[in-house]
Amino acid sequence: MSIRFRSLMLALLFGVFATPAWALAPVQEPVPAEEPPPEGEEDVEEVVEGEVVDQGAVQGEEVIEGPVEDPNSPYLAVVGGDVYTVTRGVILDGTVLCKDGRILKVGQSVSIPDGARTVNAEGMRIYPGLVAVDSRGIIPGRGTDSVDSFDPFALYVDLALAGGLTTVQSRGTIGKLTRGTLNGHLLGTTSWVEISYSSSSPSGRRSTRARLETAREYLRYLRAFELDKELEKKDLVEPESKGIPMDFVGLLKGERMARFRGNTASDLIAICELLEEFPMRSVIVGGREAWTMAPRIGRAGASMVLTPRAKDWADSELNRPSGWSIENARILWDSGVEFAILPGQSGISLGGLAGRDLLTLPMEVAFAIRGGLSQDAALRSITLDAARILGVADRIGSIEVGKDADLIIADGDLFDYRTFVQWAVVNGRVAYDKQKASYFAHIRPRDEEGPSPVEVLLEDITDGEDVVEGPVEIDAPEVDPPSGGSGGR
Amino acid sequence: MIVSLLLSALPLVAPQGDEPTGQAIVYRLDYIETLAGDALENASIVIRDGVIERIGQAVIVPDNARVIDLRGSGSFAMPPFVLGQSSNLLPGDSRSSGGNGRYIAAGVYRADDEVLSDLREAGVLLMGLVPPGAGIPGRTSVLRSDASDLMEDALVRDLHLTMTIDMSKSSKDLLRKAFESAEQAIEKEEKARADWEKARKEWEEKQKAKAEEAKKKEGESKSDKSAGEPSKDEGKEPPKEFTAPRVDPNIQPLIDLIRKERVVQIWVGSPGEWLHWLDVVGDREFAWEVVLDHGSSTNLHEVADAIAGTGVRVFLPARIPVLPSTQLRTNLAAELVAAGVEKLVLLPSSTRSMNAVESWRVGLGDLVREGLDRQTALRAVSVEPATSMGQEELIAPLEAGGPATFVVLEGDPLNPLARVSHLVAAGEVIYDRAKEDKEN
């Protein structure tokens, strides 16, 4: 309603229309006529608010919350939690600002643009979303087409998010748990070459070696041919690729990754020997006795997928260490072996990746921590190192500027059995909210003021060395939010 | 005395010009839910020639009118029930899944006296027939419950196209490819038309030039014999009328769709399927309606806002589902209305069983008791599905000038114990419980 019209209405009400100059009066003195005192007070408040926002925009000294959250804002701010960045230690009482699905700023003093959606993570811990290098039944899998079969509202997607997972690999598809949308689901594919190299099949080993040798021979000819071509030699014959195991060529070229399965020391040694002869990117799934020969695996450069609770008793006949060890992960870490951790079941089941039970992925990792693995290494094994094994560490696995905004907000230490994931953020969208999903909302509901009961129960488990004292900000130097300005102090 | 004489003489004088000819029939009822405004208590409907002449609490009863007084028994009139979708309710052929756009439901099913009589008894005047199967099962038809032969009596033989989607690549590919084929066919036809127009134009110009040349030659030398004969290189005359290239009959309905000459009804069972359907639609623009075909549990409320945002007509079962793997009841219909869905059609909990039709009003009552607006619910089982079928002239809110099509129940329609006593279609009584009871 225009001021003129409102004034006119008021004028009519007050009977001003009786005076001959009624038509001019509203234009000349609109404010006293139309504004009752309480509204005037509100106006003054608005001006003050405006000033504060202006100061923030200019000086960038205070964290200013946008007055109203705009559900369509490109910004999402996770405010006030301890940020476990994985790559740059812990930022206490920090803010992660995301824009358009990516992390824009991380730090203790980050200005939040007007209208940004916010998650109040006060007293909680912000971790990168967890990554499962293998899974069953959460996403359909099978290459880039799998998005056509993905159910973004599936119960298992919810439960996986509740377990802290935001990215899983399934049958060659690396998919994000983009609950409620198909957009941004597909992160990539793994074109792993499955190699059977078990002591139980000597013929299998022979054929694997033979194929690798054929591939290497082919590559030699190919390189010679390409060199000759560069030198512009004449009468060149391109090496025949027919009958050549091209997947093995891809392995030797470093374009693809080999996946072995091996648990016993003898199998692991054989794999290491093969890798020493034919260097290639590789991951070994299993590795129960890897602790007995960790330096060897470290030298072979293989990554591993471990299950700390997978047990196999020592063989008393052997004149060497054997069987499983709860220290397996710690020993491998000390030898520089990169590994991801998976539970024995990679589906949503009892003792699987996630579910209604306690034994979710972080709990499997907790067994490795019990065996001496540091908290940092433990976190890496289900975030950054898992992402590295999948070849997507440029996008996910740590809280860094420019990476995908995949975060989980936990109400305590991730590896404590009492901890719940309160929110999961995928591509800058809140994909899971414990209070809104039906599974755990009623267990220790989140409505209390102050730190969560879990937080109170727990001691601060950080070693201290990684905790950044004082204000720290990891900032994108070139990118600034349009309305918030730089938050640097 | 004179007045009464005059009055009795009036009908004799009356048949002139546009004056009504037929006999007026008056239904006196305890309640009328007109769906055009508030419910009327102790009111009457005056009908003549299949049209409502007057409706209201104080209407003048015309002379010679036949009065059917149903007052005092809790009688309740409203527009009749319309079964928005039914599949396999009538006996018929089974069909496999796939791209079967050529099938028409009326050609798949057979009219079954028993089912139709049960429908009339349930106060259902129209039923939408959906061809069986998944993927693109075919096109829907509309049947009146007083029909006797489906092939002859189908009210509408060829109406909407039906599609179903599930969360599989094959299902999405089937629909994607169908759309692509239709788009290619349209492109092909446009090209053929352009080619024909060009050829026709060229031929006509050639003929014109030739005629002129012949005229010229005629003027120059009348003796030249070859002038009048047609030369051999002139080619065949392109046809005068353009004939479109033959189109796969399974694809034709999709072409109609893209040309906005047809509506598609997409069957979606879960919010994921809804997203996948939007993915298939992409940038395409065409008219569609959505059938939310959920079971006893659903989380379709997750996409209620998105569905409302599209403004499409929404069909869903009249039942209260629970959230998946919980006992939490969710009034999806009410949530959809709250989200802004305006065109709502409520179906029986199953589209394929007469039992479900009989318990339809039980589910409807549940929805209203748990938050759905009463009039919205009643519209959703009568006027709204009729509109989807293009039958506004047969079934509409009860107003003067509108069609005299209504159902009379022995009580409130949301009370499942209230039986249907009359079903009137355009003034004609097609079900009368008292009469049927007498016959049996």
Describe the structure.
The complex is a heterodimer of chains A (489) and B (440). Among the domains of chain A are: 3-59, no CATH class; 192-390, no CATH class. Helices cover 30% and strands 19% of the residues of chain A. Chain A is built from 14 helices and 19 strands. In chain A, the strands form 3 sheets. In chain A, strands 1, 2, 3, 4, 5, 15, 16, 17, 18 and 19 form a 10-stranded mixed beta sheet that branches. In chain A, strands 10-11-12-13-14 form a 5-stranded parallel beta sheet. In chain A, helix 8 runs parallel beside helix 9 (294-300). The longest helix of chain A is centred in the middle third of the chain and has 29 residues, at 202-230. With 440 residues, chain B is an alpha/beta fold. Chain B has 2 domains: 19-79 and 396-440, Roll (Urease, subunit C, domain 1); 81-173 and 248-395, TIM Barrel. In chain B, 34% of the residues lie in helices and 21% in strands. Chain B contains 14 helices and 19 strands. Chain B has helices spanning 2-13, 105-108, 113-121, 150-153, 169-220, 252-258, 271-281, 304-310, 332-339, 354-358, 360-369, 374-379, 383-388, 433-439, and strands at residues 25-32, 40-48, 51-56, 66-69, 76-78, 81-86, 98-99, 124-129, 135-136, 138-139, 141-144, 161-164, 263-268, 287-292, 314-317, 344-347, 406-409, 420-425, 428-432. In chain B, a hairpin with a 2-residue loop joins strand 2 (40-48) and strand 3 (51-56). In chain B, helix 5 (169-220) packs across helix 6 (252-258) and helix 8 (304-310) crosses helix 9. Chain B is globular, with a radius of gyration of 29 Å. The two termini of chain B are 46 Å apart. In chain B, 40% of the residues are buried. The chains are: A alpha/beta (489), B alpha/beta (440).
